[in-house]
Amino acid sequence: LAGIVQLASKEIGSCFRLFKDIGNRKNKIIEGCRTLNQLEKKSDEIFYDGVFSLFADKVGMRQIAASKNILNNFMKCQEEIKLVAEAIRTIIIKAS
């Protein structure tokens, strides 16, 4: 999940740099939003696999609680990335 957050952050940075020439770079920005969407889907899969593995493995309640908190924090990051991607799409629509 940390790797996905890192990739998404880089993609957001790339999209922001493309705003300087939004008229000519609109398609590249849209492609960046698609990439962010794919990363979000991948993070959902990893999250649910992680939750499943918590209960499939015979670990203690402390380990489950700690892992659950870590997974939830990564999902909060992904939710913020989703909101940024939606804001980027809105900017593209208004710039068109």
List keywords for this structure.
single chain; 96 residues; mainly alpha; 91% helix; elongated
Distance between the termini: 34 Å
Spatial extent as radius of gyration: 17 Å
Helix content: over 70%
According to DSSP, the number of beta strands is 0
Largest sheet: none
The secondary-structure class comes to mainly alpha
Q: Please state roughly what percent of the residues sit in beta strands, choosing from under 5%, 5-15%, 15-25%, 25-35%, 35-45% or over 45%.
A: under 5%
SSE order, one letter for each helix or strand: HHH
The multimeric state of the shown protein is single chain
What's the shape? Answer: elongated
Which residue ranges are poorly predicted, with pLDDT under 50 across at least 5 consecutive positions?
Answer: none
DSSP summary: helix tally: 3
Mean pLDDT: 89
What does this protein structure show overall?
The protein is an all-alpha fold and 96 residues long. It contains 3 helices and no strands. It has helices spanning 2-18, 22-56, 61-95. The longest helix is centred in the middle third of the chain and has 35 residues, at 22-56. The relative contact order is 0.18. The mean pLDDT is 89.
SSE blueprint and pairings:
Blueprint: H1 2-18, H2 22-56, H3 61-95
Helix pairs in contact: 1-2, 1-3, 2-3
